[in-house]
UniProtKB/TrEMBL annotation:
UniProt entry tagged with the keyword Disulfide bond: no
Function of the protein: Catalyzes the tRNA-independent activation of glutamate in presence of ATP and the subsequent transfer of glutamate onto a tRNA(Asp). Glutamate is transferred on the 2-amino-5-(4,5-dihydroxy-2-cyclopenten-1-yl) moiety of the queuosine in the wobble position of the QUC anticodon.
Binding of Zn(2+), residues: 99, 101, 122, 126
Cofactor(s) the record lists: Zn(2+)
Residue span of motif 'KMSKS' region: 245-249
Pfam family, one: tRNA-synt_1c
Organism encoding this protein: Paraburkholderia edwinii
Major enzyme class: ligase
Signal peptide: none
Protein name: Glutamyl-Q tRNA(Asp) synthetase
Free-text remark on how the cofactor is bound: Binds 1 zinc ion per subunit.
Protein family (similarity comment): Belongs to the class-I aminoacyl-tRNA synthetase family. GluQ subfamily.
Location of the motif 'HIGH' region: 9-19
InterPro entries in alphabetical order: Glu-Q_tRNA(Asp)_Synthase, Glu/Gln-tRNA-synth, Glu/Gln-tRNA-synth_Ib_cat-dom, GluQ/Sye, Rossmann-like_a/b/a_fold
Length: 306
């Protein structure tokens, strides 16, 4: 198998330290496997996309010495592929259905569920019809949870994360039928990511742990679309002093592209990499990557459970 990894930034602003950590982890993992490393611009969410941010991110990655092995892929240019995948899902009777619930209706029903100590999954209001409401979004039906005593529960998705260890999520009770096509006329992130990774032949996904919770949905979608499930590794997210994930919304600073080594060394420390020599002796990007690649391989090896 040829390793194919990727970094998939959303162009909502310039690259910041949090996204650098994800980029570096995916880059080092690809290098440690002698694999290929691709970049995809996740600009499917038109309203969140900041003009010029994608070009800025691509340029910053290059300044940091991370060059993609193939031209970048842009989600905004791939809607025909999402339509095709959606049509494929629609061909299975009842797998996708229109939903007429507004955000407020769903929020209200979740509040009621919470009061009953029930789960916070979409309650399936439109599963069996729109009840006179106008269709707004389209949802993917997830399997019902097995009755007590069954040996296999089709609603539970399990996977082994190479950093976080064994994971499982019950799609029926923790998520519910999820949106593929949004009420604002956009393809949902979950569908786009699964279709893109499959079309690009991605074998290994390395990204921030904020996406750990999406992974079970993505694996379920891969099964529905009959495409392979890649291997997953979610690195710890970078948080600010208030404990919030670094992002444009939480005021993350753009990286200083004129001093890539400083930020790279800090990112390596965040990943717990032992570069094996003092910072002062790592004076070039080549020297940094030559030290960081085996350090990454060692770090991942040390995380392996017996
Ligand atoms: N574009 C997503 C983000 O920036 C990441 C998608 C992924 O790595 O699967 O949060």
């Amino acid at each position: 198998m040829t390793y194919r990894g990727r970094f998939a930034p959303s162009p909502t602003g310039p690259l910041h330290f949090g996204s650098l950590v994800s980029a570096l982890a995916s880059w080092l993992d690809a290098r440690a496997h002698n694999g290929r490393w691709l970049v995809r611009i996740d600009d499917i969410d038109g309203p969140r996309t900041v003009p010029g941010a994608a070009e800025d991110i691509l340029q910053t990655l290059e300044r940091f010495g991370m060059c993609a092995d193939e031209p970048p892929v842009w989600q905004s240019r791939r809607t025909a592929h999402y339509e095709r995948a959606f049509a494929q899902l629609q061909a299975t009777s009842g797998l996708v259905y229109p939903c007429g619930c507004t955000r407020k209706e769903i929020a209200d029903s979740l509040v009621r569920a919470h009061a009953r100590h029930a789960t916070l999954a979409y309650p399936g209001t439109c599963r069996d019809g729109l009840h006179g409401k106008a269709p707004r979004a389209w949802r993917l039906r997830v399997p019902d949870s097995a009755t007590a005593g069954a040996s296999v529960d089709p609603a539970i998705i399990r996977f082994d994360d190479r950093w976080q260890g064994p994971q499982s999520q019950n799609l029926a009770t923790e998520v519910g039928d999820f949106v593929l096509y949004r009420a604002d006329g956009q393809w949902a992130y979950q569908l786009a990511v699964v279709v893109d990774d499959a079309d690009a032949g991605i074998t290994h996904i390395v990204r921030g742990a904020d996406l750990l919770d999406s992974t079970a949905r993505q694996i379920y979608l891969q099964r529905c679309l009959a495409v392979p499930t890649p291997s997953y590794l979610h690195v710890p997210v970078v948080v600010n002093e208030e404990g919030e994930k670094l992002s444009k919304q939480t005021g993350a600073q753009a990286l200083d592209a004129s001093r890539p080594l400083d930020a790279l060394r800090t990112a390596a420390r965040h990943l717990g990499l032992d570069l094996g020599r003092p910072d002062a002796l790592i004076t070039s990007l080549d020297a940094f990557y030559a030290a960081a690649t085996p350090a990454w391989a060692q770090r991942i090896e040390a995380l392996k459970r017996p």
